[in-house]
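Record type: monomer structure entry
Structure origin: computed from sequence
Chain ID: A
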Amino acid sequence: MTATAAVGAAGAATGTAAGTAAAESRPGSGRPPVTAQRPSRELRALLREIDPDRIAATVHKLVSFGTRHTLSAQDDPARGIGAARDWLLSELRSHAAGSGGRMTVELQSYVQEPAPRIPVATRITNVVATLRGSVTPDRVYVVAGHYDSRVTDVMDATSDAPGADDDASGVAVVLELARVLAGRRPASTIVFAAVAGEEQGLYGSAHLAQRFRAAGTDVQGMFTNDIVGSSTADDGTRDPYTIRLFAEGVPSSETPEQAAVRRSVGGENDSATRQLARFVRDVADNDATGMHVRVIHRRDRYRRGGDHIPFLERGYPAARFTEPAEDFAHQHQDVRVDETGKQYGDLPEFCDFDFTARVARVNAATLWTLAQAPGTPRGAKIVTSNLTNSTELVWSRGPEPDLVGYEVVWRETTAPEWTHVIPVGDTTTHEVDLSKDNVFFGVRAVNRAGLRSPVAFPEPAA
């Protein structure tokens, strides 16, 4: 295919001229990327079921346990992390009851020996619901929030630690997604996790990620929702229609050999996690969610970390949703009123539950589309055995029964988003009359319903 033909194919694929297509993907243009996928009628119906009142009720219930500190009581029926754990288990089981056996719920526990912020051996328990896929169940997507909480002193396990925003809000998103999706049949498996031990050192999520890694589980995407309860910043300004998505570039799990390849050919902005973040924008930054997804090209905020990091460290694509601008008076603070009358503490009255419901819709649009679309193509490579000014791409065909073909995407090396799409049909190889030295390429799969996978960034191969 010539370069001119490639540009024409891109316009045909997106319904735009090539120049307009490139403009649509520019940041600040107000237009979606050329890879964007419009929400289906089915997805819109699903998103309408997300209920801000249920999210509010979950946050208030978790706050009612007084403290959910990892070192708090595990056997008190009314107060402490154990009471919260038991209530979460009951809630997820009630949602699973309507799944026709497709959703199972379990407690994942282990004893953490003394470690930083863990002074004595302590049981860490995740509450996990798994909605098994009906077509490709071995492909897995994970959504999580942490149900433990803290005050100013991270070792204070007795004071009230309401943790409404950090992170009852994220757990409320997880529970609402489990409720809405339990009665549906995703093609791939979705895991809903309320994890513990985050404030003490990401212990619960590390245990969950390690279990997946030890079992060889094909986790193709993980999202943590952490501090997604408020749209108001510390200066009182509001941004109720934006959610940040933190997505690392250079993989945390990168080996020296992989680093050498990256230094040679580029790809700092093309990790599997960055492709996952682009996919979120493609499917969830639209009128169906009512939200703008602001992708931040960092693993996390300065001096902070979340439950996606253990997944990144084990080679899984993972990213973090967080509200647009935090108010630090209402997280990691003792509940108190200072001499000026200012209220401190992570209390539910400082949450915006309509905002959190929109965050849940972003998650739902992403997870449902991921689970229904083909998986990210495997084995994508650029053939480098011959010096040539064209580019030959190869990849492995996916196992999905409704797979109908593939698309090659490309962009200038300085462009942040894919700007051109080339439909190539049901094949595992394609040659483009563009130099691999000058642009970046990717490959994504397409199914019968027109759903596209995340993009696979090809490696060089002889």
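Annotation 1: Residues 100 and 183 are 8 Å apart (CA to CA).
Annotation 2: Confidence is low (pLDDT under 50) at residues 1-29.
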